[in-house]
């Protein structure tokens, strides 16, 4: 079994294939550690963690605590990001070093036939099955690439020696949102641009409006605009037009306009698989197999849901199925689920629309525990199928949103109804109590009876 790419998906695929009895090779040009550990989930969350502390200190006055002279030490913030990031990356490299002898092959691979790879070292690998797990890379349009070091992406942003004074962020997807808000909370003057009219393509208009209000407190938001960038002796000059227009000078521009699957150079046309219009092999998400071939995909390169838990699940499914050939072990996929680590947290779960879907909403402005904590802003919209009130999806921006999102994703995957969730215990006073409001509105809209053995009232501040 040959696996191309030693990221999260490739490592999971190699483990699964070996566990199921295959002899494996894992091919990667660098073995630098996964995208997640080196330039993805972990360094971004480390920067966000620093930003959260700075933001919390800024709000201390709300609780009667006077903190003067708090100052963000930019180089120190970025040093911690890199030191902790390097620790995570070293752990992933250790897992590669502990592979059996001969499994890891340092090279770049390309197809010369459906079961044959040519490595840039000249070595030829023939395999019973090949799993393609070589990830994705940031899109950097030519106009920004021409700016050279003034234009940064998620691959380079964590290498900055200091925080910029003024930062432009292009793209309000997951990367743009998380990093724009984090830099703003660290005291950087940030302007965020998107050609789309909606931030992060959020489905629910109430959640969208709440997020925009929150963002606009800390940064300049320009939606529905096209941006033209020009190098300037002091950084980069941007001019924008569309729904609004203007121009400004920035030290750096962070380009976060999406990621593309790394298929260039793989010579997939020689692999004998059907390619979609983007050049990605057509595959079945239940097995990750490409048609009737002996080729499988896993992770971001498949361009399905470029998220860490999906990459890891893809790898396990592909590795197992590659060994099971010609049999197929079909796996149910998890409820679609993404969390963007803004403050408060944004999450999108499952479906929004279905025949006869009803909605339930909750507002965190007056929710007890959120108010106690001074974090009382946010909106939640739940979607349920009529007539039984089975939960099918949710959009939310809420304090403790990552925890609410997990509860909801698990309930949706388990096909739980609003009534059944209301029958479960809710501790007081917690942010989770905010869910009751939305669940009750689902019951009222369906209509469904509220559980008879539960109080329909609201304890102080629930
Ligand atoms: C800034 C940022 C923040 C993120 N935050 C989150 C988050 O909070 N939560 C979340 O769920 N997801 C997050 N993601 C997404 C997540 O990181 C990815 O979905 C995940 O890392 C993809 O894993 P992968 O195994 O597909 O790819 P990778 O880890 O990129 O692995 C691909 C490997 O393939 C190798 N390779 C490439 N070409 C070849 C070739 N020709 N031959 C051999 N090897 C090759 C590469 O060297 C690399 O090692 C984030 C991403 C970014 C960029
Ligand atoms: N918390 C998380 O789970 C997390 C965090 C970061 C990244 N990720 C993953 O990484 C992927 C890539 O993130 P991303 O933010 O780069 O991409 P994205 O696809 O999420 O968002 C890109 C944004 O850029 C905008 N855009 C595209 N071209 C533009 C242009 N020329 N000018 C202005 N705006 C433009 C789009 O309208 C869109 O809003 C995400 O899809 C996500 O799966 C996940």
From TrEMBL:
The cofactor note from the UniProt entry for this protein is:
Binds 1 FAD per subunit.
Any one GO molecular function term? flavin adenine dinucleotide binding
Q: Which residues form the FAD/NAD(P)-binding domain?
A: 2-315
- Which InterPro entries does this entry report, sorted A to Z? FAD/NAD-bd_sf, FAD/NAD-binding_dom, FAD/NAD-linked_Rdtase_dimer_sf, Pyr_nuc-diS_OxRdtase, Pyr_nucl-diS_OxRdtase_dimer
Q: What class of enzyme is it?
A: oxidoreductase
Residues binding FAD are 45, 300
Stored Pfam families = Pyr_redox_2, Pyr_redox_dim
Q: Which residues form the Pyridine nucleotide-disulphide oxidoreductase dimerisation domain?
A: 338-438
Cofactor(s) named in the record: FAD
Q: Which UniProt keywords apply?
A: FAD, Flavoprotein, NAD, Nucleotide-binding, Oxidoreductase
| Residues given in the record as NAD(+) binding sites | 171-178, 258
Give the active-site positions: 428 (proton acceptor)
Q: List the disulfide bonds.
A: 36-41
EC number(s) per UniProt?
Answer: 1.8.1.4
Q: Which family does it belong to?
A: Belongs to the class-I pyridine nucleotide-disulfide oxidoreductase family.
* Annotated protein name in UniProt: Dihydrolipoamide dehydrogenase
């Amino acid at each position: 079994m040959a696996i191309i790419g030693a990221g999260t998906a490739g490592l999971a695929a190699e483990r699964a294939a070996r566990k199921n009895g295959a002899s494996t090779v894992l091919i990667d040009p660098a073995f630098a550690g996964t995208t997640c550990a080196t330039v993805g989930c972990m360094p971004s969350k480390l920067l966000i963690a620093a930003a959260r502390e700075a933001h919390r200190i800024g709000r201390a006055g709300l609780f009667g605590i006077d903190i003067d002279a708090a100052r963000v030490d930019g180089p120190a913030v970025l040093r911690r990001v890199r030191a902790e990031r390097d620790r995570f990356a070293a752990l992933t490299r250790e897992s590669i070093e502990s592979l059996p002898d001969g499994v890891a092959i340092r090279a770049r691979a390309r197809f010369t036939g459906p079961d044959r790879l040519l490595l840039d070292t000249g070595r030829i690998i023939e395999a019973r099955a090949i799993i393609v797990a070589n990830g994705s890379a940031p899109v950097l349009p030519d106009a920004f690439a021409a700016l050279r070091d003034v234009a940064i992406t998620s691959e380079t942003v964590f290498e900055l020696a200091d925080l910029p004074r003024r930062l432009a962020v292009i793209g309000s997807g997951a990367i743009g949102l998380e990093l724009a808000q984090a830099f703003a909370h660290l005291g950087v003057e940030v302007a965020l641009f998107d050609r789309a009219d909606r931030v992060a393509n959020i489905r629910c208009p109430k959640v969208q409006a709440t997020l925009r209000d929150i963002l606009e407190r800390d940064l300049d938001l320009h939606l529905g605009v096209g941006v033209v960038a020009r190098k300037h002796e002091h950084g980069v000059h941007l001019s924008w037009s569309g729904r609004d227009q203007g121009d400004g000078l920035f030290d750096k521009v962070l380009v976060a306009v999406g990621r593309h699957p790394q298929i260039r150079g793989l010579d997939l046309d020689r692999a004998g698989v059907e390619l979609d219009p983007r050049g990605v092999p057509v595959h079945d998400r239940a097995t990750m197999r490409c048609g009737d071939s002996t080729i499988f995909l896993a992770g971001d390169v498949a361009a399905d849901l470029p998220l860490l838990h999906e990459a890891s699940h893809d790898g396990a499914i592909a590795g197992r199925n590659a060994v099971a050939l010609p049999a197929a072990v079909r796996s149910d996929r998890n409820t679609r689920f993404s969390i963007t680590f803004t403050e408060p947290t944004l999450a999108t779960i499952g479906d929004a629309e279905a025949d006869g879907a009803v909605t339930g909403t909750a507002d965190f402005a007056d929710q007890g525990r959120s108010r106690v904590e001074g974090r009382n802003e946010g909106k939640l919209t739940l979607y349920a199928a009529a007539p039984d009130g089975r939960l099918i999806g949710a959009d939310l921006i809420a304090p403790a949103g990552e925890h609410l999102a997990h509860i909801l994703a698990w309930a949706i995957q388990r096909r739980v109804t609003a009534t059944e969730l209301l029958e479960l215990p809710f501790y007081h006073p917690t942010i989770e109590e905010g869910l009751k409001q939305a669940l009750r509105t689902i019951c009222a809209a369906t209509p469904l009876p509220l559980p008879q053995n539960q109080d329909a009232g609201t304890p102080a501040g629930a």
